[in-house]
Design brief:
Layout (H helix, E strand, L loop, with lengths): L4 E9 L2 E8 L2 E4 H7 L6 H20 L13 E4 L4 H12 L4 E4 L3 E4 L16 E3 L6
Antiparallel strand pairs: 1-2, 3-4, 4-7, 5-6
EC number: 2.7.11.1
Pfam families: Pkinase
Keywords: ATP-binding, Kinase, Nucleotide-binding, Serine/threonine-protein kinase, Transferase
């Protein structure tokens, strides 16, 4: 019920050293979903989402001794359940690379790319709480 941290590494550059996190891929935040559909929850879905959030918060508090101090809709994400979405994303990047610009020849800024919507008959993933605290 918490976003998984797969790995981390240090990246050294002109601006110093930066810790990079390799995280579980996610589809979108609840805030983004609510922008698409202002009433995204029926009662059973709302109950399931709240139960998962409360269980995640309980784990953070009792097992990790962490208090989540920034609980909001853009810190609750939907997991990526349809595995073909990653392959489709990579294929699209190969065929049509996203826009990027170079800054002073030392840094590159990449434009974001959205995942496609789940295929017909597939659903968005489960709600997952994002905590930036390394567990």
């Amino acid at each position: 019920m918490l976003r998984e941290l797969y790995d981390s590494f240090e990246l050294r550059g002109h601006g110093g050293s930066h810790r990079c996190l390799v995280l579980q891929p996610m589809y979108m935040t609840l805030l983004e979903m609510m922008r698409l559909n202002p009433r995204p929850f029926d009662l059973p879905l709302l109950k399931m989402t709240l139960k998962r959030l409360l269980l995640a918060l309980d784990y953070l508090h009792t097992e990790a001794n962490v208090i989540h101090t920034d609980l909001k809709t853009d810190n609750v994400m939907l997991s990526l359940e349809e595995t073909t979405m990653l392959a489709d994303f990579a294929d699209k990047e190969i065929r049509h690379p996203i826009l990027r610009k170079s800054i002073d020849g030392t840094r590159t800024i990449y434009q974001s790319r959205q995942f496609r919507r789940p295929l017909r008959g597939k659903s968005f993933g489960l709600p997952i709480l994002w905590s930036s605290h390394p567990l």
